[in-house]
Amino acid sequence: MDQMITYPIGEASFTNLREDNAVYVDKTALIYQLVKQGRYYFLSRPRRFGKSLLVSTLEAYFLGKRELFVGLAMEKLEQDWTQHPVLHVDFSRNDFAIPGVLEKTLNTILYNWEVAYGREEVDATFADRFIRVIANAHAQTGRRVVVLVDEYDKPMLDAVDDEELLTHNQRELRAFYGALKGAGDHLRLVFLTGVTRFAHLNIFSGLNNLKDLSMAKEYATLCGITQEELQANLGEGVRRLAEENGQTLAEAYGRLKAMYDGYRFSPRAEEGVYNPFSLLNALADREYGYYWYETGTPTLLFKRVVRQRVPVAELRRCRMGLDGLDACDLGSIGLVPLLYQAGYLTIASYSAAAGSCELAFPNGEVRAAFYKGLSPYLFRVEEVRGLSIQGMRDRMVAGDVEELLGSLHAFIAGFSYNLQGDRESHFQDILVTIFYGMGLETYKELGVSAGRIDTVVLTPDLVYIFEFKLDRPAAEAMAQIEAKGYAAPFAMDRRAVVKLGVGFSSKTRNIAECIVREEGKADVRMAVQDGKLRAVGE
To answer: What is the pTM for the complete model shown?
Structure first.
């Protein structure tokens, strides 16, 4: 019987993780380096990347909990284990889109600290109370204070659709964080984390010595799991995953890499990292799922994509200067920096000469999350000739291919979302978004031995293989499917395979023709006649 492996999925407490003997990828050597080299730090990382666990690890270290670090690098590196007072602010648990919640939260946090370190019964601002707590904690313990702030930006992100509340929350936080400037003599360490990079925003105007680690090469792997760490710490989990899915060990590692690896948080990073949340979920479930998407999608991001009518193809691989990624104003932050900071894009390559980065989706899971997240915003605001996504899904599941293609053509024809550009990928992205909107398992640019299949869609009974061509015959697309053996990987699949060679027209900005091929059936050729895509004779 396999020994049980405890995966700390979603666990933000270092103490709980260690006491439960859960899997832990040791980052304490980097943490030791960090705490010995400076005092004021800021780190941004996408959601579900272990920021809260990092903060909790820092808290355990500064509280002198040596017993939790047994067997880790920190045990050998640290000799003193000096205990410090720790003031931990966690904004992750409240909804700050409601007026007054920020004030209540700050008051509760300060009150609890005041119970521990002394309270003066006088009216005072949050900032004054914060400074007094820090000074009192230092005086009572004889040790300088550690301030840890987790999800510092959530009160602003939650209020982003309410300009008045956003301004209010920014003002309150500016005053609160400003207390740290006046308490410098009492502080051992200040560490702030969040999703967005607002280190230079006036909210931190007083902390001009705040070191931003977000793109620092030496800390690029502080959050996330490297390939080496995966193999050294989670190899048994990968073996079980491979066994469950009828794969070789090499195939399992390859699939995990394609699905969850690829994040680079520094332009000079030598390796990417895996999203730890998704990776651990896949190993625990022994299934290659889309875990990151299920944790929630940023409405701000997708609203902007739709409002600005930016072609998806222009977003999923683009170039930007490093200065452009260091955005710091919610009101004016560009779409590409927002995608980067949210984790939908990562640094694919860097040109030192040009001072710019090429940005791309890091992996298959994120690509799927983007299309899934975008689709409801597109289709909720569109009324397309009475056609519904559910209706097209039903046709696809049932195998009514001619009806499906006719509906897709009509849908795109009435679709007001601007298909800018003249590349094949623009049109492909729209279809892929529709497929994701149907809730079907969809793979874009699926790698096989002979190349990459443009799109594969899986239903309970059918495998759809799409190859697209722009201003070229559908027959050419079908010939490529056959010549490269795109159907071969599905030869052992119980599901029937439907091959579709699709030709787009840059003039009509729609499907121009299509060839459908199913085993045991005559080919169906479809072309546009009288404004409709329908089956035609040879």
So the answer is: 0.85
